[in-house]
Structures are given as C-alpha cells and as structure tokens.
Specification:
Two copies of one chain form a homodimer. By secondary structure, chain A is of the alpha+beta class. Chain A has one domain (2-57, 96-276): Bira Bifunctional Protein, Domain 2 (BirA Bifunctional Protein, domain 2, 2-Layer Sandwich). Helices cover 35% and strands 28% of the residues of chain A. In chain A, the strands form three sheets. A seven-stranded mixed sheet of chain A has the order 3-7-8-12-11-10-9. In chain A, strands 4-6-5 form a three-stranded antiparallel sheet. In chain A, strands 1-2 form a two-stranded antiparallel sheet. In chain A, strand 5 and strand 6 form a beta hairpin. The longest helix of chain A is centred in the middle third of the chain and has 21 residues, at 153-173. At the A-B interface, strand 2, strand 3, strand 4, strand 5 and strand 6 of A face strand 2, strand 3, strand 4, strand 5 and strand 6 of B. Strand 5 of chain A pairs antiparallel with strand 5 (76-82) of chain B, so a sheet runs across the interface.
Chain lengths: 279, 279
C-alpha cells in the first residue's frame, strides 16, 4: 500500500479531498507536539523571544522581500467576495510561505540591534506552498517552526553553524538517519538556476535530510547575509547592516520520517525515542 | 490612547500593516497558551478526540455546507499564480472560517455513530473572516478552539447546556464579567435577517459576552440540529440522523478581555487568575 494510503488507513492523516491538505489524527498530533516541545528545550539556551504570526501576511511584504519574483509558482494569495456584486477580488493578503517573513519588518521597527542581536522563535506557524501533490512529504499547508537569528555577521554565522550540529544531534537522538547537505531554494525559471547555483557555491543554505520516500529535507538553514536587513533597514548600533539567518523545522516531515523509521504504531517505538518525545 | 495603539505600544500585539492581522508578542502568547491549557483541563472529562486541520479547506466543502450562501461577505478564497503566464487563478481552496467545518465530513466517513457519539477537540485553529477593521476585537485572522459534539439529539443537547454553565464558570474564575445571551450569526442580506430571527427564536445559538470595547462574544455555542449530519450523512447506529453542536472559544478576544479587566502588565494580575493560567 502506498505510504499516504497507509497513513489514512491508520488515522494518522485525514483526507480533505485536496492533495497536500490533510488533517492530523490524535497520534500524529501527539508526536508533532512532542517534537515541538523538544525544540523548545533545545533552543532554551539561546533565550529566544517568542513572536507569533498568523498564516496570512501582507502581500506587499512578500513582494518587497522578493518572494513573488523568486517563487511565483509557490505563492498563494487571498481573494474575497467584494463590492455590491460580491465578485472575487484580490485582498491585501497572501498566505504565509515561511514562518520568518513577518519577523524582519517587526524587528526593524524596534531600531538598531546590539552586535549580539537577538533570537526570535516563531513557534509552529502554518505555512502554504502551492504545489499540489500526492507525496505526503510535499504538503501545501504545513507547520514550520523557525528560529531566526539577527545581529552582527560573526554572531549570526557562528549561531548557524552551532545549530547545524545541535539539530543533527537532536534528530539522530530520535533514531533518524539524519545527514546534513548543502542545498538550494527552488527558485523559479532560468534566472532561478543561476540564483540556486550561487546559493550553493556560497553555501548559504544547508539542509538536514532524512528518509521518507527517499531523502527529504526535514530541517533547513538559510543564511541571508544582508538580504532582509537591507530590505527592511535592520541596522546595528554603531552602524552597519545586521545579518540574518534562520533555521526551520518542518513538523509534518519530521513526524513522517519518524513513522517511516519506527513504524505506524507509536506505542511500539523504541523506549528512548518515546521518552525524548514524552510519548 | 485607543486600546489597539496601547497594545502595540506594550508589544502585546505586533502591527503587520493590514487591519485585523497582527502578530502576538511574548506576553500575549503566554496568556493565550495558558488559556488553551485551561480549556484542555476543563474538557478532559468529555474525553475528546483531538483532530487538527490546516487553515485552508476545500472550497467545495464550504459551498456544500452553505457557507458561501450564508456568509459570502466573510469568505476568503485562495488564488495562485498558475499556467505558463503565471496569472492569478482560483485554486480548490478557501480559508477556514471556523475550526469545526472539516470535522463533519471526516466523522461522516467513519460510518454510523453510537447514540452517545463522540466529542472532537479541534485544538486552536487559525480561522479567517474577511472583515478588515481597526477594532482589536474584530480580527481577520484569529485562533478558534472548538469542541464539537456529535450523537443522538438528547446527548448533544444536554452536552451543550452543561457546557454553558462550565464555560461561564471557567471564564468567571478568570475575573471576567462573563454573561450568557442568545445570539445569531451574521447571515448575509435580507434573507439573512429571517435566518437570524429564526435562529434566535429557536435558541440555536448562544454566546458568552465579556467587555472589551463594549460587550463582545468571547465564546459561542451553536446547535446545528441535522444541518451538518444531513449535508454529510452522519448517521446513528440503528438509524436516524445525528445531531451536532459546537462550542468555540475565541482565543484572542479572551486575552483582550483579560487585558481590559486586569491591565496590560500581566505580572500585576490577581494571583488567582495568574494561577489559573499558570502564568
């Protein structure tokens, strides 16, 4: 039986009639929330500030940050039945494509950062990518929990590299065959290939992969250099643009990788994994 | 200072540039999550089954349930840049307008219910209503936590009435001047007025109100009779259509009512309220 059908059969995911949009059954949620708590504990040493944003975001903000140019094929926008004729017309909103987007303008509004800067924890945000598929590892709507680091270049750089090891260790403790690799974003079109090659060459993105149906990115690290700080004006005290980086955990993919590794009956998982996840 | 500006000033809410779409600061989230846990404890006696759904839902499902007819002015639909020309075109998805909508078809798919039926806990779902406003009590995107009861008419009816008292007691323990009242949904247009009058007359909806800027519904009970069970075919073992009812808590409104009642500095709230919310 294909994996997706097996997940429905066991009540782990719930069909809605649209590919890539599923409900979560009780056991799936138990694992997901257990993993979320594990990240909270692992991130405590960073003393992150919790900020939470809705699954909709000003469309203008995504345009300004370049999302519409780089990933037009993934964008979701919000329409509403407007006017006396109740016709569907565009609103000011789009669907949030990654948890960290709203963080940058809101931190910029606070004024300059110290060189040590700060760490923001977005909590598990529901994000959207328009890529309908029957692959359970490629959802249209899924939870992304992001840690965002903003500060002086050396601070942000060393934070990102330390988290590469911490995240690998955390995921391997769960019994996953997790491996880090350099990655690239799915930029659109021919110009996108050049962007992706440059991203790879500069090692601005790396991912942690684990098997679902083949190796799948379950966590992703992006080093943005001055991209967001120059867009929004995030400066350092004493002058200079801040650097930013983020680390995103894909909740649903991590649960799926765990189900692939340890089986669909959570009560049969190894004791140490259940203990890590407080199951 | 208007309440909304005061909330921004204190970092409780975070501006995004679109009215009714705000981020939550750390302290707002602490209260919200504390309240969510309180509902979990209060609902434990019902032994609810946790099912969670994304903030997007098949558009067809909302059409089938009558949402487009009854509340066209509140609908949000999802468009994507599609085709070789990347034009914005409608997808199969709409934004979830209430946490309970996806519950009914998924329970229907399981087959007939016992007369005692079951209780579903949706967890805190992000829902959307297209009604841009500067009133912090009227958000476009907010958390709704719903308990949904499905079963024989007498079971569902008595569950709803028992929760009226339990919810009032729970909210009053938090120091809120909470009062129950018969309510009606904001049905669209002239025909909508007739629907709302009939709903009021049959006492199918009641709300718990507390002051924010004036009395505001912070929890809402809807008795659907056979509306959803006849739409989706939710039947009872031995024959007959199930009844359904739901109780929704509006997380953000409840936090706002608490901030109005006890002040913007959570550390100064009464000890018994902080203890209830584990703050």
């Amino acid at each position: 039986m294909p994996f997706l059908a097996d997940l429905f059969e066991h009540g782990l995911l719930v069909e809605t009639g649209v590919p890539g949009v599923y409900g979560h059954g009780r056991e799936f949620e138990r694992v997901r929330l257990g993993f979320d708590d594990l990240v909270t504990r692992a991130a405590a040493a960073d003393e992150p500030e919790r900020l939470r944003f809705p699954p909709v975001v000003p469309r203008r903000q995504l345009e300004r940050a370049g999302f519409f140019n780089s990933f037009p094929h993934l964008v979701g926008t919000v329409f509403a039945l407007q006017g006396d004729d109740l016709q569907e017309r565009a609103t000011e909103l789009a669907l949030l494509p990654a948890a960290c987007y709203p963080v940058y303008p809101s931190v910029a509004a606070r004024g300059p950062l110290t060189r040590d800067g700060l760490t923001i924890d977005t909590g598990p945000a529901y994000v959207f990518r328009h890529e309908p598929s029957d692959d359970p590892g490629r959802l249209q709507s899924f939870h992304m929990r992001e840690l965002v680091r903003l500060g002086a270049p050396e601070t942000v750089h060393s934070w990102q590299w330390s988290w590469r090891d911490r995240a690998l260790e955390l995921l391997r403790r769960l019994g996953l065959a997790a491996e880090a690799d350099v990655g690239a974003d799915p930029f659109f079109g021919r110009a996108g290939k050049i962007l992706a090659d440059s991203q790879r060459e500069q090692q601005l993105k790396f991912e942690i992969l684990a098997p679902i149906d083949g190796p799948t990115a379950i966590a992703s690290f992006n080093y943005h250099q001055e991209h967001f700080s120059s867009t929004y004006g995030i400066e350092l005290e004493g002058g200079g643009a801040a650097h930013t980086a983020c680390l995103g955990f894909g909740h649903e993919r991590i649960v799926l990788a765990l189900l692939r590794q340890h089986g669909l009956d959570i009560d049969d998982w190894p004791g140490e994994v259940r203990s890590e996840l407080a199951l």
